[in-house]
Structures are given as C-alpha cells and as structure tokens.
C-alpha cells in the first residue's frame, strides 16, 4: 500500500530507503511518547494501522493501551498484524469517541491537522483525560496544505500551544524533527497501487493546489527561506498547570 496518508510498515519495499526514513521519523515520535507515558490507561488516537500503538504497548507492558482510528481497514490491519495482551483497537471518530474509562495519557501524533475542528478534538481529549492526565501530540509546523490533500490546517509552534492552552494544558517538553524533501517521481501519474514510494505524484497535487490558492505560494516560499527544502514537525507533552 503506497499512500502519502498511511504507512503500512510490513508492506514497505525494503529496497526503498526514503519510505523507511519516513517510517523512522514516525517511530521516533512514538519512542518519545513511549518514554513519557504515565498512569495505567493509555489512548492512541488516530492510531492508523497500529505499528506505533504496538510500540507503546510493548515498551510499557504494565499499561493498558487502546488504539482508535476512524478507518475500519486500518483497524482490521492492526488487529491482524499487531497483537499484544495489553493492546486493543476500536474503530471510532476521534472527535466523538467516549470510551469506557478515563485515560491517564492520550497520544495523538499527526492527527489534529486532519480534523475539521481542532478545537473540538482537543476539547474531547480534555474530557477523556483522567485527573492529572497528559496529552502527547504532534503536528507539522511548516506548510502542508499544498502537498497533502488530507490536511485541513497548518500550525506554527504558537498556534499549536494556544490550541491546548484553551483547555488548560501547557507544553512541558518538546521534540522537534526535520524531514528533508524527496524529489523522486514528483510528477508521476501512477495510481497508488503502482507507486514505488509514498511521495510519488505529490508535485501534481502541489501545482493543482496553487492554481486554486495562488497566495499560498507565499507561505511556501517563506517557509523555504526559513527552513530550506524541509518539513518540520513538533511533538509536545502537554499537562495541566
């Protein structure tokens, strides 16, 4: 499965270093989160196909971990490929998921930029948290709307912090990552199932986006002047203060 939106580690081409580098960046976020888990009940919201949720459960066998995702195919894949005694999965909408218990830690990596209302999502996280609980969340902090049609919002460090501050949560620890752009096959016309790597064809989507939103090019140029040919990601540990 080759898609800019989903990573299925067991299906990646072992001869493609670029896709494995992208997977490594995602796993580093989960490693960061895993070392900060607290309490006994952990929620991984928008867990995708479950590879990161499994890492959380494997490295924290004393905790009960639940992965939630809206995609039934991703949940089915997770249930088939990532099984542990302290791990389970639920197919549900992140904005409305209620659960049967409060959670001591909510992990939400590369989720918030996908939802129509980030404020409603974070308010739901606040409702799901146990007293003294925490959220470990990440977003891109460079422009992404032009290159990823699944993203609905851009964030900066400041806007990301304000989103959680509105629920009384403040960042106490940060982890920033850099991902350098890939230029192979940018204008490929291949269907997803024919792609050799996840970023094939992204250039086509970028050009179409600029035709509809020409002024967004200014945001992209500003980011390039500041950060070069790279995307930046920020993961924060948020706690009530």
Keywords:
single chain, about 240 residues, alpha/beta, Rossmann fold, seven-stranded mixed β-sheet, 7 strands, about 35% helix, globular
Written overview of the protein:
The protein has 241 residues and is of the alpha/beta class. The chain has helices at 17-34, 51-59, 72-81, 118-128, 157-165, 202-212, 216-227; strands at 41-45, 64-69, 87-91, 103-109, 129-140, 169-180, 230-240. It has one domain: 3-Layer(aba) Sandwich (Rossmann fold). It is built from 7 helices and 7 strands; from the N terminus they run αβαβαββαβαβααβ. Helix 1 (17-34) packs across helix 2 (51-59). The longest helix has 18 residues, at 17-34. It starts with 16 loop residues before the first helix and ends with a strand. The mean pLDDT is 91.
**Gross geometry:** globular
Provide the gyration radius in Å. 18 Å
Mean pLDDT: 91
The CATH class assignment is Alpha Beta
Biggest sheet character:
7 strands, mixed
Summing up helix and strand content along with how strands pair, one would put the structural category as alpha/beta
**Largest sheet, spatial ordering of strands:** 3-2-1-4-5-7-6
Helices and strands, in N-to-C order? HEHEHEEHEHEHHE
How far apart, in Å, are the first and last alpha carbons? 42 Å
Low-confidence stretches: none
Number of domains: 1
Please provide the count of β strands. Answer: 7
The CATH topology annotation reads as: Rossmann fold
Structure annotation, total helices: 7
CATH superfamily: Vaccinia Virus protein VP39
At CATH level 2, the architecture is 3-Layer(aba) Sandwich
Strand content: 15-25%
Question: Helix content range of the residues, please?
Answer: 25-40%
